[in-house]
Amino acid sequence: MRTLNDIAEEYEFLEGDERYRLLIEIGRDLEPMPDALKTDATLVRGCSASVWVYPTGDAGKLHFLADSNAAITKGIVALVIAAVQDQPAAEVAALDFTAALEPFDLRNQLSSNRTQGLPNMIALVQQHAARIAAT
Predict the structure, then answer these.
(1) How many angstroms separate the CA atoms of 126 and 76, rounded?
(2) How far, rounded to the nearest angstrom, does the alpha carbon of residue 115 sit from its chain's CA centroid?
(3) Coil, strand or helix: which one is 1?
(4) Which of 81, 96, 101, 126 is surrounded by the most beta carbons within 10 Å?
(5) Which stretches make up the Fe-S metabolism associated domain (predicted)?
């Protein structure tokens, strides 16, 4: 998976539909999430599409599996995961996602339906990281 900085560099030089294509592409690059992990417990609430996020790892290195049944939404969750993948739990819990995702200007680039679940994706990731960091 590409880093968030690498994705942001490419995104900056694109416009309109090209940005959508990049989001779809990074969504396809997500590590496959087994269907058995796509349960009510891993479902992110409040998303217009179905989104699942499954955390693994420990305090030293969190790893996330994620998927969505919608291509653009899968790209959005891929951005969230790219910001935190394989990072220490304490860093993930403290990450300023607003600043990290600012280069993508998602609120202005995408419809509100596509971004409405973003805060819930972020909250799920950070809550898990905070729980792991505290142990």
Answers:
(1) 16
(2) 11
(3) coil
(4) 81
(5) 14-127
Cα–Cα distance between 47 and 63 in angstroms, integer? 22
Tell me whether residue 47 is one of the annotated catalytic residues. Answer: yes
Q: Name the nearest CA neighbour of 87 among 124, 119, 59, 118.
A: 59
Model pLDDT for residues 9-30, shown as the tens digit of each residue: 999 999 989 999 999 999 999 9
Distance CA 58, CA 46 (A): 27
Distance CA 80, CA 134 (A): 22
- Total domain count for the chain? 1
> Residue 90 corresponds to which amino acid?
A
CATH number at residue 65: 3.90.1010.10
Cα dihedral 46, 80, 42, 51 in deg (nearest 10): 50
Task: Look up residue 135 and give its two tokens.
Answer: 């142990």
Q: 91, 99, 109, 116: which is closest to 125 by C-alpha?
A: 91
The parent domain of residue 127 ranges over 4-134
Instruction: Give residue 100's identity as a one-letter amino acid code.
Output: A
